[in-house]
Amino acid sequence: MAKNEHDQRYWLIELLAYWEGRVNVSYLEREFHLSRQQASKVLGSYREQMPDNLDYSYTLKAYLPSACFASRFISGEADEYLQWLQGIPRHHLQVARLSSPQRQILPHILRPIIHALTFGYAVDINYASVTNTTEERIIAPHSLVLAAGRWHVRAWCLARQEYRDFVLARTRSASVDETRDIPSPQEDHAWHTWVELVFAPDNRLAAERQQALEQEYGMTDGRLIIRERAALANYLIKQMGVNIKFLDALPEAQQLVLVNKRDIEQWLY
């Protein structure tokens, strides 16, 4: 990660050019709160240092990575881009994060998907299912999702004729397909539908423990209401540690229950 102000700005230029396939002054204005003139100077300064990296597209009004693009300020690793995308705050305070196995997402997999997301194309992928069988799929991605500790891409699956989530780490290969007619992301009904999930302490817990949970989650009248996209409801339930298939014999094992399961059942699996 860049350490000084100039390197930080050059880092973002390379990050956007490498992963998203374009960068312009508007990105720098927003990210660093610069005027248009200041942002133009930053891009100009970068091009002086790396004259062969960017080509200007008058059609897109943006700089694109050249055929001989060579990164100097970024690592080129997928996690670098995904962490920036996630917007993890970095504080001067000491922060500990739970270590978990890193699911490998290779740059040559992520870049075509980001390109397709940016320009509205389809992607031809080789995808490994949970049964470890590999299938060729053509998908039309519209969003990246970090859920349940994994990065997914939300996409229209041409084979299944439905919107599905694909785990990036299970993708074996990916190539952009500019020839396909793809549906508008607005047609993803589950993505554009918002639902309320209502959680409450398991009533089998002692009253003191229920009160502690109400305070912990900032509940009102013993209820925690979270509004989320219907397409992501299952991930949220998993994140809350709630099992909707069966009630654990020990209430301490789950602590919370989903109160309104029947109301949102059509979105659950």
From TrEMBL:
<protein>
    <recommendedName>
        <fullName>WYL domain-containing protein</fullName>
    </recommendedName>
</protein>
<dbReference type="Pfam" id="PF26109">
    <property type="entry name" value="WHD_BrxR"/>
</dbReference>
<dbReference type="Pfam" id="PF26107">
    <property type="entry name" value="BrxR_CTD"/>
</dbReference>
<dbReference type="InterPro" id="IPR051534">
    <property type="entry name" value="CBASS_pafABC_assoc_protein"/>
</dbReference>
<feature type="domain" description="DNA-binding transcriptional repressor CapW C-terminal dimerisation">
    <location>
        <begin position="194"/>
        <end position="264"/>
    </location>
</feature>
<dbReference type="InterPro" id="IPR016634">
    <property type="entry name" value="CapW-like"/>
</dbReference>
<feature type="domain" description="WYL">
    <location>
        <begin position="109"/>
        <end position="174"/>
    </location>
</feature>
<dbReference type="InterPro" id="IPR059019">
    <property type="entry name" value="WHD_CapW"/>
</dbReference>
<dbReference type="Pfam" id="PF13280">
    <property type="entry name" value="WYL"/>
</dbReference>
<dbReference type="InterPro" id="IPR059020">
    <property type="entry name" value="CapW_CTD"/>
</dbReference>
<dbReference type="InterPro" id="IPR026881">
    <property type="entry name" value="WYL_dom"/>
</dbReference>
<feature type="domain" description="DNA-binding transcriptional repressor CapW winged helix-turn-helix">
    <location>
        <begin position="6"/>
        <end position="86"/>
    </location>
</feature>
